[in-house]
Amino acid sequence: MSPGPGLHRTVLPKSFFASGANCGVRRYRPDLGIITSEKEAVTVATYTTNECQAAPLIYCRELLPSRRIRAVVTNSGQANAATGELGLQRNFAMAEAAARSLGVETSQVLTASTGVIGHQIEIDKIVQAMPELIARSTNVAENFALSILTTDLVPKAVTTVVRLSQGEVRITGICKGSGMIHPNMATMLGYLLTDLQIEPELAQSLLREAVDQSFNMISVDGDCSTNDITFFMANGASGVALKDEEDYCKFKDALFEVARFLAQAIAADGEGATKLIEVTIRGAPDLELARRAARGVTLSPLIKSAIHGANPNWGRILARLGAEKVPASCLQKTVISLQSVAVFADGSPLEFDRRCLHDQLKQSKVQIDIDLASGKEEAVAWGCDLSKQYIDINTEYS
Amino acid sequence: MSPGPGLHRTVLPKSFFASGANCGVRRYRPDLGIITSEKEAVTVATYTTNECQAAPLIYCRELLPSRRIRAVVTNSGQANAATGELGLQRNFAMAEAAARSLGVETSQVLTASTGVIGHQIEIDKIVQAMPELIARSTNVAENFALSILTTDLVPKAVTTVVRLSQGEVRITGICKGSGMIHPNMATMLGYLLTDLQIEPELAQSLLREAVDQSFNMISVDGDCSTNDITFFMANGASGVALKDEEDYCKFKDALFEVARFLAQAIAADGEGATKLIEVTIRGAPDLELARRAARGVTLSPLIKSAIHGANPNWGRILARLGAEKVPASCLQKTVISLQSVAVFADGSPLEFDRRCLHDQLKQSKVQIDIDLASGKEEAVAWGCDLSKQYIDINTEYS
Questions:
Q1: For A18-66, what is each residue's pLDDT tens digit?
Q2: CB contact under 8 A, B314 and A179
Q3: In terms of C-beta density within 10 A (0-12 exposed, 13-18 middle, 19 or more buried), how is residue B327 classed?
Q4: Cα–Cα dist A283/A289, whole Å
């Protein structure tokens, strides 16, 4: 699977189109994007678990799941969260403007927002730009992927083709990070598009599982956002459905691969990140513990800072495992490895070549492997290092 | 109450003595300290909830509560955590060396350690220095307070006098921070000393409550340590006991005040901190929610970074409250104030003078007041801002 940015063009599934433009809210960057489907699309979503829900989430929850969605419009720069009744009105006006330009019903248009919390969106600029935004739609993802970025550095889009028994379908994934990333579900915006024919119930269960193994396993800073939503749209334009168990497994694997690819892209592009950290827990007595421990390690500012400095300070990893309630009896048997070098086993430090490991930790991807030797469950989580640039970005933003 | 450092000398309660020295583990700073009591002291403790417990904690848990403690020896620089059987042996040797020099039983000597995890302590240097360390004991806290510091900048010690019906007693508190601070109980070392006569059961319940309202409400980085312990020693040397409810309340208030003073001192001296952040939650429907919400705000790296930049980005506070599961119905009624300036109410942003508030947020103490308007419970938590120096300290440490 190859990433979207650069010279590569991410072609959308059949009958999907996308666009991005600058409507004037942000000064230099695109700030308004839309994904449209020529055919009515089965659409489901997962939402942030934050009790403070932004206006677009309140709106989307009322409409989904649906079999009739034609578009998702997204603005960046202003989150439309903590904006009260006026925020809800302006969110509706954004959907309405897109529906008018597309000639569809407002209830067929979804919305998403990302940016600073507590500012009313500049709805006049958004409404005015809508016809031109839609007119610029193409069958590639890049312009849309750019328009939804906030502090991300890299647009994130990827497409894969799945060969099923009746023919080919395509899956495109697009997302943005990169601060307030500690999904539960995903502290991010995500769009999974396919031309497969599928029923809403199955789409919902696939999405839930995909998100659990991808976006819900990443963390940039442990702050869970008010605006996070992942859409899964299936417009059936390929004429291909899932005919048997083999088709189901192939499609599911491909969808999960797209979701994990995007999740890693978000972690690697976390605010101020210079390295992707992949934490694998093996041998856990239960899945919940494996997931919590893996995420706990990606969350620790002490571990993140150590990795930033290529410092093999594994004691902080052990301490975090204990803080996440990995039982003392497991910790006694735990083996911790950094870049495949074992540093702790049998409850005691191991001898290792510090200088050599220090050099290996300078790579752009750091692997922390933890074997609890206490069961069969596994989990993988992704995070990033903590650099001074994170402070720069978040001291000045707003 | 005035702090310990500087020209001020913190005089210990009757018959307590303390000392600190450099035994050679660390290059420039004192790294070994001891508190002794001429009389056997009733001693209780609270411990980290981390599943990974350092050797001294395993040792102290076996001895406490006790009516017979004569000393606590503490080394800094090496945490004696994740050190296996050898770590336990060396910890015992440290207690034994102190007992020998003092002419008491080893079971009358407690231990504590702080520093890097996963290194065996240099026990020979510690044992060798013990007689000289004890010979240098005085009735003031400063040398001991210095010897237990790691990345702290300021020694933390304070004394208060309580006038009870039978006479005066004294309470001294000493502690250290300043990384891996997210107590549960306290990610720190704490020593509360008094010459009051008190039974172990009452001492334990007072300590538990004091810690819950002080050390358990601070956070520097959300990382919970393997070594945290707070001791409460009462040697009865004043000859004064708690005779009635009034005595009890006076003593309790003074003890809590000492604990809160120390907790704030730790937060203010957090790694890289330039500001103390005090978060007050009022009007909560239950105490658990109030405590979780208050601590959640102090934990958020986004809020900590914003405060570092004197940036009145209250949206991040609201988002964190929602992430901590303050119900949406509460958030609708919530009023958020920064330095007494209301910025959010009735579910919507309020108008305020951004430049003026920016200036007010440059002060060394920032107050975040949150009224959930949904009940009578309150909680206060303390934290610090997140600066680039935190990254420097934790990239290089070990």
A1: 999 999 998 878 999 999 999 999 999 999 888 889 999 999 999 999 9
A2: no
A3: middle
A4: 10
| pLDDT of A4 over the 60 cut | no
Q: Rounded CA gap, A91 and A93, in Å?
A: 5
- Among B86, B308, B393, beta carbon nearest to A395: B308
- Please give the backbone phi and psi of residue A265, each rounded to the nearest 5 degrees, phi first: -65, -40
Q: Are B195 and B176 in contact (CB under 8 A)?
A: no
And the tokens for B6? 């500087």
**Sign of the dihedral defined by the CA atoms of residues B92, B94, B97, B99, in that order:** negative
Which of the residues A49, A187, A223, A335 would you substitute to probe the B interface, choosing the one with the greatest number of B C-beta atoms within 10 Å? A223
Kindly name the residue from B187, B226, B230, B298 that is annotated as catalytic. B187
Q: How high is the ipTM of this complex?
A: 0.79
Residues B63-104: tens digit of each pLDDT: 999 999 999 999 999 999 999 999 999 999 999 999 999 999
* Smallest CA–CA distance from B386 into chain A, residue: A391
pTM value is: 0.82
Cα B276 from Cα B267, distance rounded (Å): 6
- Residues from chain B contacting residue A223 (CB–CB below 8 Å): 300-302, 316, 319-320, 323
Q: How many CB pairs under 8 A join A and B?
A: 225
Is the separation of the CB atoms in B367 and B358 below 8 Å? Answer: no
d(CA A223, nearest CA chain B) in Å: 6
Do A391 and B395 lie within an 8 Å CB cutoff? Answer: no
* Smallest Cα distance from B364 to chain A, Å: 16
Please give the positions of A annotated as active site. Answer: 187
Q: How far is it, in rounded angstroms, from Cα B387 to Cα B72? A: 34
Is B194 considered catalytic here? no
E strands present in chain B: 16-21, 32-47, 66-78, 109-116, 156-164, 167-176, 189-194, 229-234, 276-284, 335-338, 341-345, 348-349, 365-371, 377-384
Q: What structural domains and CATH numbers belong to chain B?
A: 16-268 (3.60.70.12), 276-396 (3.10.20.340)
